[in-house]
Design a protein that fits this description.
Layout (H helix, E strand, L loop, with lengths): L2 H4 L16 E3 L4 H8 L4 E3 L6 H10 L4 H7 L3 E5 L4 H4 L20 H10 L4 E7 L28 H11 L3 E6 L4 H5 L10 E5 L15 E6 L1 H16 L5 E4 L16 H11 L4 E4 L5 E2 L14 E8 L2 E4 L11 H6 L6 E4 L2 E6 L15 H9 L6 E6 L10 H17 L9 E6 L2 E19 L7 E10 L2 E8 L6 E21 L5 E7 L4
Parallel strand pairs: 1-7, 3-4, 3-15, 4-5, 5-8, 8-9, 10-14, 14-15
Antiparallel strand pairs: 2-13, 6-7, 11-12, 11-13, 16-17, 17-20, 17-21, 18-19, 18-20
Helix pairs in contact: 6-7, 9-10, 12-13
């Protein structure tokens, strides 16, 4: 899961679908349907737009309800688990003996308890990694748990995972890798087949769905694209409800002339139809990759960014995925020659608790100080943190990692304990100025801010001031706020009255939070 191999050319098209009782055909380009269904999520731009027009359009971009709910999660979990756990590889070969997969002590309730105690609200399982080994008994591949002697061939990690997460109040996410080394060996992945109309699901011999009346889709896909559609259909109809579908843009380790062009538009159509509430990330229309695997957002992270089309219902960053600025006035102007839309596309910061994404016995988890620093530079910078915690060869989260998750949650609770502004006198002098009277002088060294993103992301510059000896003194200055901005003061400041002043905005800002804290760390 390294940067060089992911090839995140992240997609950004929502497909709105209309269907008869049990049949769906892709009748219109995904971008057209998306624009009609969610007009403020994505606004067209052109090279003739002036810088002022671009800023005005950016001010009108709004998130979907799905995106608002996702941004409120703040911290989500990744669970990399599969044949790599047993082979020691990070990128599998696709020809592994399924019998290598033997998590004899699998306890997904233990995973769920650890994540719950660590404060996670959603967890994503690697249902299929790049090797193509599937953690449920799929009808469309022999490279799965059904071909392992584990549990007599009746094992189903996805079933256990989904049931455990829901039982403990955690939302369910799935990662299904677009790359598939096993299907390449079988002549399906990157075989040069043309896109053509495919009926999904494709029933197989002895299919237990044949006697019913399954909802069907007629969609354009390559041979491998249809394979992915069938597996998506299985997961979303038999293991739902699914709250997030996570893709990367990884290509298999294949000759460059055999690159598989992914059928994003068709995949998105099936997901939107079968899991309409699911967030699609990171190569998806709802969420973008922040651009590194260190869990770190930019100092000023924008949720409204310029994007361009890249084919098959997918769009890409207009600027480089790792550009230091994705959405400021300068960035919007810089993107003018290539950008086709301004889109609400918030950032996700992924990082593993250990050096590897899969479990390795010789590795140890990050320290609490490291995790806290990552939290402040992800959640504290208008992003969602995606932290990977890999299960071990027994099928358990390692004891050291479980302890670290609890310590991590407790650390953030101590960093931001009781909000001193709760119950204080609050006055909004205008749309960009909020004053808080704590009624008595208090020490403050942490400040948490948020915009009401239902009205977009508007704040470009702001200052925080404290009143001392009858005069306002600046204690902090920064750029963006968005859904979450956390400032750490170099030393505690004692004052009764505090003021937030927005000094530059795209249009009238809507402040949702001005929290004041005294850290207990």
């Amino acid at each position: 899961m390294t940067v060089s191999r992911r090839l995140f050319l992240a997609a950004a098209t929502t497909t709105a679908v209309a269907a008869s009782s049990n049949s769906l055909a892709l009748a219109a380009p995904a971008a057209t349907a998306a624009t009609a269904a969610e007009p403020h999520y994505r606004i067209p731009v052109s090279a003739t737009d002036s810088p002022q027009e671009l800023v005005a359009k950016a001010s009108r971009v709004r998130p979907t309800k799905r995106q608002i709910a996702w941004q409120s999660l703040e911290k989500t979990a990744f669970l990399h688990f599969g044949v790599n756990t047993f082979t020691g590889l990070e990128w599998g070969t696709g020809d592994e003996d399924p019998n290598v997969f033997q998590p004899t002590g699998l306890d997904t309730d233990q995973w769920a308890r650890a994540l719950r105690d660590g404060g996670f609200k959603l967890a994503i399982l690697t249902v299929k990694h790049h090797d193509g080994f599937v953690l449920y008994p799929s009808r469309y591949t022999k490279h799965s748990v059904a071909s392992s002697s584990w549990r007599g061939g009746d094992g189903d990690v996805l079933r256990s995972f989904a049931d455990s997460m829901r039982k403990h109040g955690i939302k369910v996410g799935v990662y299904i890798s677009p790359a598939d080394e096993n299907q390449y060996l079988d002549g399906v992945y990157a075989n040069g087949s043309e896109r053509s109309a495919r009926t999904i699901p494709t029933l197989v011999d002895g299919d237990d769905r044949a006697g019913g009346d399954p909802r069907t889709f007629t969609l354009d896909a390559t041979d491998y694209g249809a394979h992915m559609l069938n597996q998506l259909y299985e997961v979303l109809t038999e293991y739902g409800p699914v709250d997030e579908v996570w893709f990367d843009g990884a290509q298999g380790r294949i000759p460059p002339e055999k690159v598989e062009t992914y059928d994003w538009d068709s995949w998105y159509t099936v997901i939107r139809a079968l899991a309409p509430g699911a967030t699609m990330a990171v190569r998806g229309p709802d969420v973008r990759w922040v651009g590194n695997e260190g869990g770190l957002a930019r100092e000023d992270e924008w949720s409204v960014v310029p994007v361009k089309d890249s084919g098959n219902g997918s769009v890409d960053y207009a600027l480089r995925y790792d550009a230091p600025d994705q959405g400021s006035r300068d960035a919007l102007a810089q993107s003018r020659s290539v950008a086709q839309y301004l889109q609400w596309w918030p950032a996700e910061c992924d990082v593993s608790i250990r050096p590897g994404w899969f479990y390795h016995a010789d590795q140890q988890p990050k320290t609490v100080d490291q995790l806290a620093d990552i939290w402040f530079r992800s959640v504290g910078r208008n992003s969602v943190l995606l932290l990977n915690i890999p299960p071990d060869t027994d099928g358990l989260l390692p004891a050291a990692d479980v302890a670290r998750l609890k310590e991590f949650r407790e650390r953030i609770d101590r960093e931001l304990p009781e909000d001193l502004a709760d119950g204080a006198r609050v006055r909004d002098d205008d749309a960009g100025t909020r004053t808080v009277d704590l009624r008595t002088a208090r020490q403050v060294d942490r400040i948490r801010l948020a915009e009401d993103i239902r009205h977009g992301q508007q704040v470009e510059q702001f200052v925080v001031e404290a009143k001392s000896a009858g005069a306002w003194t600046e204690v902090a200055r920064a750029g963006t706020i968005g859904a979450s901005r956390v400032l750490v003061l170099p030393a505690p400041v004692t004052a009764r009255e505090w003021r937030l002043r927005v000094t530059q905005a795209r249009t009238g800002p809507h402040i949702a939070r001005f929290g004041l804290y005294r850290s207990q760390v």
